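dude i think i finally got it to work??
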Amino acid sequence: MADDAKQTSGVGAGAPEGTTADTTAGKPAGGGRKKKILGTVALVALLGAAWWGEGYWTEGRFMVETDDAYVQSDITLIASRVEGYVAQAPVKSNTHVKAGDVIVALDDRDTRIALDTAKTNFETAGDTLARIDAQIAAARASVQQAVASQDASEATLKNAQLNADRIRSLAATKVVSQSQLDSATETLDTATAGLAQAKAAVSSAEAQVKVLEAQRKESEGSRRQLELAVAQAQLDLEKTVLRAPADGVVSNIDLEPGDLVSPGTRLAALVPDGGLYVEANFKETQLHGVKVGAEVELTFDALPDHSFTGHVTSLAPATGAVFSLLPAENATGNFTKVVQRVPVRISVPDEAVATGALRAGLSTVATVDSRTGTGQPVENRPSEDAVALAPAASIGAAHAAPAQD
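look at this
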């Protein structure tokens, strides 16, 4: 029994040792697999980081991106310049029109009457000028007639003077009577008065010509005013018809015949064809690489699977906050610095416009390649000549300002 107990105890004692040995032998195998997995993950991460770093170093660090960009267009607002009732509104919203197509036609009966009245007055002014011309011709004929009468009076006076001198000589020698001398003197006085009357008639006729010529000038001025009145009435008539100024799509129009329109009332909006561009608002910290002519990769939310290449065409002269209705006033109170944005205009390529999916106001992501572009950068530095011409006090104040900080 003792031997059996030893065997039993030997078996009981040997079992834990075998179990411990097996467990110890299994641990290195599991740890090796974990190390391989971790090593593989680390290698993949390292390769990914190297690939990303290589892309950033060769290209990514030169890209300036913003999603604060939108498709814009130079929208033309259609407004009336005269008051009237809508007679026709043949164009509805979202309709494509050609330049010169009628968008809205107002009731033009009043303006047509005003035009006919102005034309009638103008024609009457022409008849008035014709009448004055005839009067001037008659007055000039009267001048000629008065001049002829003056010549006749001069001849009569000359003859009366000779006769009076002869009678006076004969009367001195008592050849003729006193009554004959008195008659000759009376004839001379009458001839003298007749000549004076003839000269006055000439002056009166010439003055009449000048009066008529002055009236003609006044009538010409009145006729010119009436001619302008006709042109104004014609222009008012043309204003009753609102036409498309360019090819494009009409939008935001809601008019019906009979609606009353006042001057300056906005009636519709026209989005011209081919007038789309992108306005990207870059932060002021991103502008160091933005130049005119730089290539820009454009992706539109309306065309998610496509990208297009545009170019920077211009940069705004000020931030958007400067042109706001209520610009910020940072000279009073507490100040919190806010990064400003500058609008940058980017051209949209023709292939993007040809898709027909772009509309003004759509969201865009713009990525500028700062390695491209031949225009001037955004930062405007004063030239050496400008600094040389600046007043000495200004230069001194510019150098003294950092010292105060």
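DSSP finds six helices and 14 strands in the chain.
im so relieved honestly
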